[in-house]
Amino acid sequence: MGRTLNGSRRGRVAAALALPIALTLTLSPTPVLADPAAQSSEVTPDRQPTTEQNGVALLRIVVPDEAAVDELNSMGVDLAEYKKQVDGGLEVHAVLSPAEAQSLRDQGFDVRGSITDQGDFARNQTERRQALAAEAAAADEADTLTPLRAEWFTSLDDQRFLSVEVKSSATDATTVLTATWDSGPRTAPDSGGTATMSRFTDAGQYMYHRFNAPLPITQAPTKVTITSSHGGSVTVPVTKWLGEKRKPPSKHYVEDFVDHYMDPTEVTGRISTLAKEFPKISQIIDLPYKTNGYRRAAQAQFGTAAASTLYVTSKAYGSEGGNDLSVALVQPAAPSSPLSVAVDGKNVTVSLATDASGAAASTARQVVDAVNANTSAAALLTAATYRGNAGAGLVAAAPATKLTDNLKAPATVSRQPFQMKALRIGKKRDGSKVGVFLYCQEHAREWVTPLTCVETAERLLRNYAHDERTRKLVDNLDIFIMPTVNPDGGTYSFYDYNMQRKNMTNYCAGTNSGDPASRNSWGVDLNRNFSVGSLFDGYSGASSSCTSGTFAGPSELSEPEARNEVWLTHQYPNIKFAMNTHSYGGYFMWPPGAYKTQGRELLPRVDYGTENYFWNASTHILSAVQEWRGTGIWPGQTGPVPDVLYSAAGNSADEHWFNRGIIGWDFEVGADVYNAETKQFEPVGFQPDFAEGHEEAMEFANGQIAILEVARSFSEDNDRPRSKIEVTGRTDSSVTFTFSTDEPANVYYTLDGSRPTLSSPKLAEAGMREGAQQITVTKETEVHWFSVDIAGNVENNYKPDGHSDNYREDKVKVRNVR
């Protein structure tokens, strides 16, 4: 219930809001408040205390400074214990009725949307009742525990870790799972240790239980037992994760070709030089869409308080003449002078109006309108009030100020639209070989990723002549490497703002976020700009705000960088595999990558055979990563994107998979490093010191080479899969079975004695990370089926679209004991 703003606590709000607000012109956003001229001098009560809750909500209020917070307190506003710095000053939260909120708005306070209201209260109460009912029901019977994964692995310095994932049929929040494990063969079941598992939820839905981070252990366990607070229990074997033995390269194999972080200009020059050095097995592809360029309009800002502040923006980019412009605000010596604007070449002079006493009398709005109305000035620049402010404050004189684009890269870095390039590697580059697309640095601040792509290119070209393993890859694949998808943003990250994520295209121009203080927030998140599962389709994980870190752009594929990726996969339809390399965190993921938060509605999951293919390949790929220095990517950070990370609406892997059928993975290089002293995993960040960045580039270049090995095996796969029925359960009146295959493959089956085809039911996944679907029959059933692997090989060379009958068949018999 909000406190009534009674007469004994009349506000002195107008005085507080009229205080000067210092503006930082190019560094950080500045407070924005309503026009003081529109504020009344008091807060007038219009309701008395009541016990009614209707309409009361927890609302956001943005104030300029601590003095205004104190003023709210003195007025008796029911403030929450919350305060944080935001673009408009300070955000505080208050419990207010609609009348109280309106009263504050009338006094000039910036009262914004609700955090929670009575609707939330009602929902919480309903959810609580449902949860209590579920808990009561769950308490009456033991839950069923479904083991998903149980593995041990090593990472750096051979430290062992345990990772376990289990799903409980009791999904309520009170369910507690405890894991207990042995310390090796023939040891006591609890000799290894015991730990409580954490409940993993996403988009409000229970997923499964796991450890927040893999647990350090001293001995490799053979079994782990998980028990539930509801009485369920299950014991499963613990298998080793990673460590697959790969054929070593020849003794002449060379690696380690990067020795410093490189900006996009340098990276692009590097692959161009490689193509010239190795013209017989490589070439440069100039991608058709040039970027916007490392360039910005030039700007200048004038004023020390929001209402009296204005800024100007050049029509031309700074590098194309905008940086040569200047604006001066002068105060004539004569009284009662009119406001005027004069232009002399590239110099704009605004003569402020004066009153009868000779004092400056032009408001920010008047100056802005005068500049924009002057034909000569408007040809050079535009003017705006500060973030949409009414501009009623008086403008002070200011000396001639040069406009600047604020870009700091050296002159050797071009400001023109960037010609993006891809390096194509292969002995036979005519489309007849399986294509693999490796691309890096969609996000500008991820400096390690282009090094990974460059290192892979160097290894392939420089080892071709003397390493048989490399020669087989280059001879039998068509490899496309794009080391920097985001060259403009990458340059901005190197020289201007290292945390830049997006490209540099400014869709905030002309909006309330177009002032210089927002310059580090402009741009489009390229990995949210694609056309599948996008923000525009209602999927989660992207934003429509031009200053958001995940801004999806004004439309799907609005950005040339994204269109270049799509063009490449369409221009070269032989591309069947792809790898998008990001940082950081140490993840290995695949589609689908997006869902709608409401109901956690995912893009369609890949079929069961393809899912197994992803998992099977991950063992080979991540073992290669581990070979460099021992880094183990966690099992819990391996899998489809939404299972292990979050929804990423409009990402490129979904674009390539759903539109082109390209089997694509996502690396997040930079796995957390385990600190043996603190017994904690420590993150490495986007731009670790180069010693760490170098190691990350080396180990994940290993991973990219392993992806090429997976693709080569695919291209040479002529082996037909084999499958069989496995009975997994029996009762007196039913049999439960599934199918197993000797390699990742899809199984098509019928239960009615008919001939199976590609339109028949397909074996599905039982659930997320739960293995194969279980099929139950209650009478003797004749099962017909066949399997197809990812390369298209069909079991027994059966022709599902023909008339042959060499499919697999078996009878499942039910006891029917009475």
TrEMBL record:
<dbReference type="InterPro" id="IPR000834">
    <property type="entry name" value="Peptidase_M14"/>
</dbReference>
<dbReference type="GO" id="GO:0008270">
    <property type="term" value="F:zinc ion binding"/>
</dbReference>
<dbReference type="Pfam" id="PF13290">
    <property type="entry name" value="CHB_HEX_C_1"/>
</dbReference>
<feature type="signal peptide">
    <location>
        <begin position="1"/>
        <end position="34"/>
    </location>
</feature>
<keyword id="KW-0378">Hydrolase</keyword>
<dbReference type="Pfam" id="PF00246">
    <property type="entry name" value="Peptidase_M14"/>
</dbReference>
<dbReference type="GO" id="GO:0006508">
    <property type="term" value="P:proteolysis"/>
</dbReference>
<feature type="domain" description="Peptidase M14">
    <location>
        <begin position="379"/>
        <end position="711"/>
    </location>
</feature>
<protein>
    <recommendedName>
        <fullName>Zinc carboxypeptidase</fullName>
        <ecNumber>3.4.17.18</ecNumber>
    </recommendedName>
</protein>
<comment type="function">
    <text>Carboxypeptidase that possesses the specificities of both mammalian Cpase A and B. Thus shows broad substrate specificity, being able to cleave Cbz-Gly-Leu, Cbz-Gly-Val, Cbz-Gly-Phe, Cbz-Gly-Lys and Bz-Gly-Arg in vitro.</text>
</comment>
<keyword id="KW-0479">Metal-binding</keyword>
<feature type="region of interest" description="Disordered">
    <location>
        <begin position="794"/>
        <end position="818"/>
    </location>
</feature>
<keyword id="KW-0482">Metalloprotease</keyword>
<keyword id="KW-0732">Signal</keyword>
<keyword id="KW-0121">Carboxypeptidase</keyword>
<feature type="active site" description="Proton donor/acceptor">
    <location>
        <position position="668"/>
    </location>
</feature>
<dbReference type="GO" id="GO:0005615">
    <property type="term" value="C:extracellular space"/>
</dbReference>
<feature type="compositionally biased region" description="Basic and acidic residues">
    <location>
        <begin position="798"/>
        <end position="818"/>
    </location>
</feature>
<keyword id="KW-0645">Protease</keyword>
<dbReference type="GO" id="GO:0004181">
    <property type="term" value="F:metallocarboxypeptidase activity"/>
</dbReference>
<keyword id="KW-0862">Zinc</keyword>
<dbReference type="InterPro" id="IPR059177">
    <property type="entry name" value="GH29D-like_dom"/>
</dbReference>
<comment type="similarity">
    <text>Belongs to the peptidase M14 family.</text>
</comment>
